[in-house]
Amino acid sequence: MAQRILKLVRSDELRRSKSDKLIANYIERNLADIPFETARSIATRLEVSPMTVGRYLRRMGFDGLDELKLELRRDGSNNPAWQVKGSVGRLRDDNREGKLLAGLIQQQIDNLGMIYELTTAPEWQQAIDALIAASEVYVAAYQNVRGIAQYFASQLSYTRSRVQFVDGLNGTYAELLDGSVEGRVLFLHDVRRFAAKARPLAEEARRAGVKVILFTDEFCPWAPEVSDICLVVPGSHGPLWDGAATTVAVMDLLLSNIIVVLGDEVGERVAQLTRLQNVFGDFED
């Protein structure tokens, strides 16, 4: 599939004008970076308008950049979980000049700014209500976001009872899927490169009557198909691997919102857990 895209951008038909050549050359030289771009970011780099990029993509046969990204995802060769994007030599030069870290900081700031839009979306309140009302909450994640999800499960357990991280090592997820208790919620965290078990788990959970909250990034092509509530955060667009700052910030805001809604109930639970920690000597005096 990547070869088909390269053949397209190298064709005379798609290299007629100056802007055609700019966009074609950019796609050809930065194909591995396209999943981390937007039409606007490409336009900014090339000093053309987003409309110019959009028209070019339509001439390629894609209804926008998302369709091009989807074809690249199907190819599977441009979507590792940890990827250093760009020339290592260039990254070293940028680091010496202070550009690399400055760019990464700005990306984190931009992403954190976008979180506000998520917190004002209907899905946000739906997620809060579901996590509070659930009879049991199960949290699942894989690979390099597993630890972040375990953190969320641990923190959520301070706000309410019956919260469990499920690792799937029993091969069945029976504790989630056995149907013995109604009103269960699965909080599934998965970002690119998407885990092979994530989608089947979401599908089986919904089949078993479990409400699915999917916390993912903008690169997930199947999110609406397998979730009842979908929380989408920006994916990585920087020159290095995916960072966790945006994800952790969203989880902390979810927890804060739940604490505000539950009020005194949280205080009572924390007091109970603190007493138990003292009984079993988990912390220094």
Q: Which properties best describe this structure?
A:
single chain; about 280 residues; alpha/beta; Arc Repressor Mutant, subunit A; Rossmann fold; 2 domains; 5-stranded parallel β-sheet; about 10% strand
List the helices and strands and how they pair.
Elements: H1 2-9, H2 18-29, H3 39-46, H4 50-60, H5 65-75, H6 88-96, H7 99-119, H8 122-133, E1 136-141, H9 146-156, E2 163-165, H10 174-177, E3 184-189, H11 198-207, E4 211-217, H12 223-226, E5 229-233, H13 245-262, H14 264-280
Helix pairs in contact: 3-4, 7-13, 8-13, 9-13
Query: Averaging pLDDT over every residue, what do you get?
Result: 85
Total domain modules: 2
Secondary structure: helix percent = 40-55%
Structural classification: alpha/beta
Tell me the CATH architecture of the largest domain: 3-Layer(aba) Sandwich
Distance N to C terminus: 61 Å
Number of strands: 5
Domain HTH rpiR-type: 3-79
Protein name: MurR/RpiR family transcriptional regulator
Pfam family, one: HTH_6
Organism: Ensifer adhaerens
Describe this structure in words.
By secondary structure, the protein is of the alpha/beta class. It folds into 2 domains: 78 residues, Arc Repressor Mutant, subunit A (Orthogonal Bundle), CATH 1.10.10; 166 residues, Glucose-6-phosphate isomerase like protein, domain 1 (Rossmann fold). A 5-stranded parallel sheet has the order 2-1-3-4-5, sandwiched between helices. It contains 14 helices and 5 strands. The termini are far apart. Helix 3 crosses helix 4 and helix 7 packs parallel to helix 13.
